[in-house]
Write a structure and sequence with these properties.
- It is a single chain.
- By secondary structure, the chain is an alpha/beta fold.
- It has helices at about 35-40, 75-85, 95-105, 120-135, 150-170, 205, 210-215; strands spanning about 1-5, 5-10, 20-25, 60, 140-145, 170-175, 190-195, 195-200.
- It is globular and about 50 Å long.
């Protein structure tokens, strides 16, 4: 539980983050999503309970926004050099320049290396911030609304990139999203938060949950058509909390 003065921000929140999975946190405004990320990052400490991390685990963080002084001339290369450690464990035998270029390759943004950060488009800046987080060699990559401001095509491309990074780098991904059109296919697990966990589980279970439908009034679950079948029954893993 986390409190601000006498106000309870989130309460009764329990879940696990597994290796090489993508966990998406959804919820209405004021639900405590950013507070939950700050607890995971240990920027806030809970007033009760504990955030338990495996010893030696490394976190990489991509903020929702990062405002830089527009009068400061700064290339992407210089920005990443200032932001990154001397070496990344994935590139132990290489110089920092090689590590930076390799991470920009992972996010399809090598061409931005010599560009001024202030001339980047919104999508390019998001890629650079993602490369910055990856340079921390994270076991868990934490993203706060990474597709904010991107159009639908840009959002889809970003989520595809997260899957690529999860598979290649091997880190877990935890991110907050307000998008309910692409999030289901982009996640292994979904947590619906409204100051407490309303529902959690596989996207196919969460999107049909009545509490999710109530919180996002008028939202119609996304369905897709395919020519393969799912084996086994679909059992719900949703948990409800009541005051």
């Amino acid at each position: 539980m986390s409190k601000s003065t006498n106000q309870c921000l989130i309460d009764d929140v329990t879940f696990d983050i597994s290796a090489k999975t993508i966990t998406t946190i959804i919820g209405p405004n004021g639900a405590g999503k950013t507070t939950l990320l700050r607890l995971i990052l240990k920027l806030l400490m809970p007033t009760s309970g504990a955030v338990i991390q495996k010893p030696g685990i490394k976190l990489g963080y991509m903020p929702q926004k990062l405002n830089l002084n527009v009068s400061l001339p700064l290339t992407v290369e210089r920005f990443l050099k200032l932001s990154s450690p001397v070496q990344s464990r994935f590139f132990v035998a290489r110089e920092k320049n090689d590590a930076i270029l390799s991470m920009l390759e992972q996010v399809n943004a090598c061409y931005t290396l010599k560009q001024n950060v202030h001339t980047l488009s919104g999508g390019e800046w998001q890629r650079v911030l993602l490369a910055r987080a990856l340079l921390q060699s994270p076991d868990v990559l934490v993203l706060d609304e990474p597709v904010q401001g991107l159009d639908l095509a840009g959002q889809s491309e970003f989520y595809q990139m997260l899957h690529h990074i999860r598979n290649v780098v091997g880190c877990a991904v935890v991110h907050v999203s307000h998008d309910l059109h692409l999030v289901w296919d982009a996640s292994d697990h979904v947590i619906c938060l409204n100051k407490h966990i309303c529902c959690l589980g596989h996207p196919d279970q969460v999107r049909l949950n009545p509490e999710v439908q109530r919180l996002f009034g008028g939202f119609l679950p996304y369905t897709h058509h395919h020519d393969h079948s799912h084996n086994g029954a679909n059992h719900s893993n949703c948990e409800h909390s009541h005051d």
